[in-house]
Design a protein that fits this description.
three-stranded antiparallel β-sheet; alpha+beta; 269 residues; five-stranded mixed β-sheet; 12 strands
């Protein structure tokens, strides 16, 4: 009788543990299936001081466009000659939020999206009537995010899109490990000489409302470890959570109960 009760109790504990494990692992558990939700905080990445922009002006006459495309210049000290290549250098955004552009001079770009930078430069070219039928292309060349902690492939990742969210960043890092805390994903952001840390819970669709859901350049995404992973740093730290530990405890309790029952019958026979 005692043995059956112990086995029943052990089965109930195992079932509850299984249900709890699913709640800790599954993403977006309260997401509304097939229900349209307005997209919040979907701002495109904007230019900040220190960013590098690759800007190319193209038209039918390459020689005319060349006056607005700053080439890479290499100096040869032995011959004192200067060579130029067809590659176009990147423009580093100054601390005051401007770039120094050939012919056009200083152009403020801080706080602008890539498309807005393109439009600003195109308008200046039109005002000066330098060339006709031209195309301006603007790309970021140094946007990066950093993914650390309990992910399968931590590292530095280059942003190529205007909008990159935290789920996409986790996908770049090949998802969280089984030991990653879905409810403790942190985004550390630095901008305008300030630092702010956001905490996201991937199990809830509340992440869509967070200002950190869409990432910005140089954001750091950190996934905290579970208690099991943290306890691995200590000797015997996971003993209580080890199934073999509980099997040993159950076996020990069963032996004690059997011995107690035998002693009870012996005394009353």
């Amino acid at each position: 009788m005692i043995m059956k009760k112990l086995l029943f109790l052990f089965s109930v504990c195992a079932l509850l543990s299984s249900c709890n494990a699913r709640k800790n692992i599954v993403y977006l558990q309260d997401n509304k299936i097939e229900q349209i939700q307005a997209i919040a905080n979907a701002n495109k990445i904007k230019v900040q001081p220190g960013d590098q922009l690759q800007i190319i002006v193209s038209c039918k006459d390459p020689e005319l466009a060349a006056i607005l495309n700053m080439p890479i210049v290499s100096f040869h000290s032995q011959t004192s000659t200067v060579n130029t290549s067809n590659s176009v250098v990147t423009y580093v955004v100054n601390d005051d939020g401007t770039i120094d552009f050939p012919i056009l001079g200083s152009i403020p770009v801080e706080g602008l999206t890539r498309e807005e930078v393109r439009t600003t430069i195109a308008n200046k070219i039109k005002e000066l009537e330098l060339i006709q039928d031209f195309v301006v292309t603007v790309n970021f060349s140094n946007l990066k995010i950093y993914v650390l902690g309990e992910v399968s492939a931590p590292g530095t990742y280059t942003i190529t899109d205007n909008n990159v969210n935290v789920l996409q960043a986790i996908a770049m890092a090949k998802d969280l490990t089984i030991h990653g805390r879905r409810d403790e994903v942190y985004v550390v952001r630095e901008q305008e000489n300030n630092r702010v840390t956001y905490r996201l819970d991937l199990r809830s669709d509340s992440i869509f409302q967070s200002p950190a859901f869409y990432l910005k350049q140089n954001d750091v995404v950190y996934v905290a470890p579970s208690k099991v992973r943290a306890n691995q740093s200590t000797v015997g730290g996971n003993a209580v959570q080890n199934p073999s530990f509980w099997l040993s405890v159950t076996s020990c309790l069963t032996s004690v109960a059997t011995f107690s029952l035998a002693m009870y019958r012996y005394r009353h026979d």
